[in-house]
Amino acid sequence: MKGLYIHIPFCEYICHYCDFVKRVPKDQNMIDTYLIRLRDEIQTYQKHFDSIETIYIGGGTPSMLTVDQLTYLFDSLKAIHPMEFSIEVNPESYTFEKGEVFKKYGVNRVSLGVQSFDDKILAYMNRGHKTEQIESIIKHLKSIGIKDISVDLIFAIPGQTMDHIKHDLEQFIKLDIDHISYYSLILEDKTYFYHQYLKGNFKPMDEDIEAEMYHYIIDFLESKGYEQYEVSNFARDNHYSLHNSIYWTLGEYIGVGMGAHGFIDNERTYNERGMSQYLDHFTKERMPQTDELKLQDELIFGLRMTKGVDIHKIEKTYGINLFEKYPQIQDKIELGLLRLKDHHLQLTKEGMMLGNQVFMLFI
Description:
By secondary structure, this protein is an alpha/beta fold. The longest helix is centred in the middle third of the chain and has 17 residues, at 207-223. 34% of the residues are buried. It has helices spanning 28-43, 67-75, 96-104, 119-124, 132-143, 162-175, 192-198, 207-223, 242-248, 275-281, 291-304, 311-318, 322-325, 328-334, 349-353, 355-359; strands at residues 2-8, 54-59, 84-89, 109-115, 148-155, 179-184, 226-230, 233-236, 252-256, 261-264, 267-271, 283-288, 309-310, 338-341, 344-347.
């Protein structure tokens, strides 16, 4: 499959944990100017339009665009007919009118940034919505025929307890949707939380409690019919994120917009992260991919999937003996972080919590 990722960097406010390319726009004209150049960049990939099977509009906060701005963006994509067309939505910026625009232009999947069903936790993370908004948004999306809905939740937030996790999961189940992404809070550089950490005002959650939360999440969702198909992603009835699966399986995808990454025509592309640079020339760097780099990526991203990597396929594709090239794999198997199953190398449940210790083998 081939995907198209579109980055909208604008936010009405900045969440305390977020390290994505984002900014609060000074006015609507800044957004309009950006969208004009974004549309120009999209057109540079016109030769790929017929083969694009997924579109994902992320951010930032794509849903903070006005109806007119969303219409302008969607108009630039009318020549593409994807199987899956996703957009990220923050609850506080969703309106029924915007939902109707989504439907009109073929959006068939919405990723809703819930993060927590506790208003105090939301305030701590500097989120702008209230939990009471979630149910009405999902009800409206279903009513207009957008039923492929995912929510994002976060665990291991300082102050969060197992009771919070249980409550979040119970509220999620009530929504009756088919997908959830449940991420562990990561302390990222250049975030408010990181600056507080440097001042001694932020204490990351104890690793044992974090592991307990993660294992509970996996077991609970499995008991409710949700398959864990990736480290942080769970789906019911095979409603996987097709677009994200492209990343994890080393498929091709185009990245447009400030700070966007792509992997197309055997090149990794990296766009400018600054507004003035992006408006001037879009791309910061193009990096041709060697077999060695692709092997690293295929192992690291492939192991994020619960099915793991097909050893026979890897060895045939790259002409290697996996265990001879990476003898430390056996050490990780003995430590209980990796396992072999049906000629696949997979992370164990413990390995999913400590994945970076495994991924470092391949860098």
